[in-house]
């Protein structure tokens, strides 16, 4: 059964064609990861399916009575509402049903209805149908289901009365997701539901999504989440949608195989076309030297052969390589001891210490992932290392030949430049000609006109790429990266991973991107409850150690 079918859909945004003539059938119980570079139109596609965006042409045909739950990227909740009130607020469809039931209830009191047996029966039948539909939507059990889901997602019952104004961006997304799931949608459309969640929250999200009985279309840059949840990948790139069976890892392999097959087929066909064109040229030359109708017919026949191949769409396109960031993190040889923390304590006035007596050593060539729940003090630890904050006690020692380079989670390194252009920032960081600066920025997937736009108008992903470009210019040998993949699309994250593989210096990276951690780090340091615990290996090794009983996983309330 098809829950929804897209027929030749074309979407434009501000005069720019996002995609054209897109056709797709969404099956019942489908588990689809929708991937593609930033700007490919993933969010627009979800909005079109949800009915929130009217396409330029084509149509979306939805199954009769289809219940759709759509979670957009940006969530706004009434700040005065409590967490439980926001999560228990009925879905729009239930609210509409309540309004219709109230209207029918009012009709029952009208003389024209209760005085006419046929009219009365029609109203009662309509009321029974709506009541049955409302019950099916879990309207009666909505609040209890919302409470249950909140607990599954890690919220403690004592938090239910807290106002939404105190919630983080990640928490607001989870509240909105609870509201959707409580109405049991048949098709769930999720636009980056995992943004700003820590590792434990992501594990809980995975379990809740895995238990959902309906179909799911998930847009996410978290490749680990895609591996765990989806059984099909829909790649939206260059205006085309390509379907691959399997999770994200299987898609990576099959996409590369498909690319190689297309490349070989293209080379073979180009040789065939070149042979046909050479034959045409020979026959035309002979026909011009000796007027021979047979040569003219042979040239015409081969030309028509090429035309028919084009008409039938048999011409194989040349493989277009995805435009990647030209990121290289060389770094000079640094001190053998890159960073050392001794008995480090941090406490704010009147509060208990956030952490106390931390000891940590990072040597040249080591790559350590710093993980832990939100609020544990990871970003604060970076600020202490960089001298932006003063510790309550203890010592921070940076190697004499170590040159730190900092990537800030909220792009604070760009704060002083929001009214200036990336062109000015690049030339300030390293003196070079305007042409060289433009060429450099183009390597980071900026358009030519963007090089002269103010940085304040840039998206999160564009600011992330600009921060990475600055690190490349600074050539640090001690990298302190705070959530570097948060706003990057998957191709950019993969380019960063490739650059870090070649980086010879020391790396300390805060990340909740489990796929990234597995590819990049050879050790994990977990900051939790004021203590730092070290594990050998990447995220998978850390998880195995935790599951083996070293420490309970996914326990406790939201931090």
Structure description:
With 559 residues, the protein is an alpha/beta fold. 42% of the residues lie in helices and 21% in strands. The strands form four sheets. It has a six-stranded mixed sheet, with helices on both faces. The two termini are 42 Å apart.
Average pLDDT over all residues: 87
Strand order of the largest sheet: 5-6-7-3-8-9
Proportion of residues in helical segments: 40-55%
CATH class of the largest domain reads Alpha Beta
Briefly note the structural class of the backbone. Answer: alpha/beta
Q: Return the CATH architecture of the largest domain.
A: 3-Layer(aba) Sandwich
> For the CA atoms, what is the radius of gyration?
29 Å
Instruction: Please state the oligomeric state of the protein chains shown.
Output: single chain
What is the terminal separation in angstroms? 42 Å
- CATH topology-level fold name of the largest domain: Rossmann fold
Q: Which regions have little confidence, pLDDT < 50, spanning 5+ residues?
A: 552-559
Q: What's the number of structural domains? A: 4
Got a strand count?
Answer: 18
User: Any idea what the shape is?
Assistant: flat
Largest sheet: 6 strands, mixed
The fourth-level CATH homologous superfamily of the largest domain is P-loop containing nucleotide triphosphate hydrolases
What is the strand content? 15-25%
- Helix tally equals 18
């Amino acid at each position: 059964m098809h829950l929804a079918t897209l027929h030749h859909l074309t979407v434009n945004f501000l005069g720019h064609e996002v995609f054209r003539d897109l056709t797709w059938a969404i099956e019942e119980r489908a588990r689809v990861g929708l991937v593609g570079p930033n700007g490919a139109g993933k969010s627009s596609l979800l909005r079109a399916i949800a009915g929130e965006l009217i396409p330029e042409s084509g149509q979306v045909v939805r199954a009769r009575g289809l219940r759709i739950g759509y979670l957009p990227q940006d969530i706004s909740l009434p700040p005065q509402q409590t967490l439980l009130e926001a999560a228990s607020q009925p879905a729009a469809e239930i609210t509409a049903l309540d309004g219709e039931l109230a209207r029918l209830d009012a009709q029952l009191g009208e003389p024209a209805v209760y005085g006419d047996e046929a009219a009365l029966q029609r109203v009662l039948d309509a009321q029974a149908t709506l009541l049955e539909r409302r019950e099916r939507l879990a309207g009666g059990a909505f609040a209890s289901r919302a409470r249950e889901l909140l607990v599954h997602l890690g919220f403690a019952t004592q938090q239910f009365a807290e106002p939404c104004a105190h919630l983080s961006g990640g928490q607001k997304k989870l509240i909105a997701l609870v509201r959707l799931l409580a109405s049991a949608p048949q098709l769930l459309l999720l636009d980056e539901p995992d943004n700003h969640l820590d590792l434990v929250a992501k594990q809980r999200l995975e379990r809740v999504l895995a238990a959902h009985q309906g179909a799911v279309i998930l847009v996410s840059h978290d490749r680990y989440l895609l591996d765990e949840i989806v059984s099909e990948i829909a790649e939206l790139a260059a205006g085309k949608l390509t379907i691959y069976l399997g999770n994200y890892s299987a898609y990576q392999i099959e996409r590369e195989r498909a690319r190689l097959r297309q490349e070989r087929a293209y080379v073979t066909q180009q040789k065939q076309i070149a042979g046909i064109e050479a034959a045409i040229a020979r026959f035309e030359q002979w026909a011009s030297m000796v007027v021979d109708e047979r040569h003219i017919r042979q040239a015409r026949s081969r030309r028509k052969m090429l035309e028919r191949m084009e008409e039938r769409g048999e011409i194989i396109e040349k493989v277009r390589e995805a435009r990647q960031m030209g990121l290289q993190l060389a770094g000079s040889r640094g001190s053998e001891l890159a960073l050392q923390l001794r008995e480090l304590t941090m406490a704010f006035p009147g509060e208990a210490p956030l952490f106390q007596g931390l000891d940590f050593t990072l040597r040249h060539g080591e790559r350590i992932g710093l993980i832990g729940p939100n609020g544990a003090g990871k970003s604060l630890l970076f600020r202490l290392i960089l001298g932006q904050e003063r510790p309550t006690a203890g010592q921070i020692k940076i190697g004499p030949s170590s040159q730190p380079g900092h990537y800030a989670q909220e792009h604070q390194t760009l704060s002083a430049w929001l009214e200036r252009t990336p062109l000015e920032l690049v030339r300030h960081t390293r003196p070079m000609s305007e042409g060289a600066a433009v060429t450099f920025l183009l390597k980071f997937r900026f358009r030519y006109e963007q090089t002269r736009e103010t940085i304040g108008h840039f998206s999160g992903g564009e600011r992330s790429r600009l921060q990475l470009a600055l690190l490349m210019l600074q050539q640090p040998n001690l990298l302190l990266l705070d959530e570097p993949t948060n706003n990057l699309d998957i191709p950019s994250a993969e380019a960063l991973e490739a650059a870090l593989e070649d980086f010879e210096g020391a790396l300390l990276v805060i990340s909740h991107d489990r796929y990234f951690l597995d590819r990049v780090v050879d050790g994990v340091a977990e900051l939790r409850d004021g203590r730092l615990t070290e594990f050998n290996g990447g995220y998978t090794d850390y998880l195995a150690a935790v599951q083996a009983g070293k420490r309970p996983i996914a326990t406790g309330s939201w931090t």
